[in-house]
Amino acid sequence: MKKATVFVHDTERISTFSIRLLRSIPDEVFGSPFSPRGKICQVDRKAWDPSNYGMGPVFGPMQKTLLIADDHRILRDGLRALLEKDDSSFRIVAEAGDGLEAVQLCRKHRPDVAILDADMPVLNGLDAAAEIQHSIPETQVLILAPGNDESVVIQAIRFGVRGYLLKSASSSEFLKALSIVAQGGSFVSQEISHVLVRCIRNGDAV
User: Fold this and answer.
1) pTM score over 0.70
2) Region class of 122: left (phi > 0), else alpha (psi between -120 and 50), else beta
3) Sign of the alpha-carbon torsion through 93, 98, 103, 104
4) What is the pLDDT of residues 143-162, one digit of tens each?
5) Distance (Å, whole) CA 132 – CA 75
6) 170-174: long-range pairs with CB below 8 Å, 24+
7) What is d(CA 91, CA 62) in angstroms, rounded to the nearest whole number?
8) Measured between alpha carbons, how far is 133 from 155 in angstroms, rounded to an integer?
9) Which of 36, 132, 175, 181 could form a disulfide with 163 if both were Cys (CB 3.0 to 4.6 A apart)?
């Protein structure tokens, strides 16, 4: 049976809670007793499935959870493939094919970030964003839009959307926007920033 070697780094900083959590894992999971002083534990790969014990991985940074909503399956698959290939700090917990389903799944899974297509059936992305921000305010919203229509951009910002990205954006720009939004920041495509500047200059309230 294959074994995985797990190192406990910087053990002086391991919290008492973390030690208690590790000690609470059933003995059969670890091939040798856990030592908080940094000794090596042999962990059976199959047995060490966090879902079996109702917890996430003990070591490493916490992943941010995502919901992807787009009525085109090929686009959802493309985003999933991009994230699985280039960024392990995010985990997709749900996918939706329309705005109403996106709202329902956000209420169920409460993801850190909801990635919404602006144009979806049943309930469009902006209305879905407004409902998500109202009912699950801790979920940040990143809108993917085909264009930079001024009224749509302004409405999205008024609804509390954290990110507004054009679908023509590169994969690197998407990952940058997602990372910023997941941390509670704001991001808009460069083309959209020009729209906002023009609105401010014209005296339009945002």
Assistant:
1) no
2) left
3) negative
4) 999 887 778 888 888 888 99
5) 21
6) 171/82, 171/86, 174/79, 174/82
7) 10
8) 13
9) 181
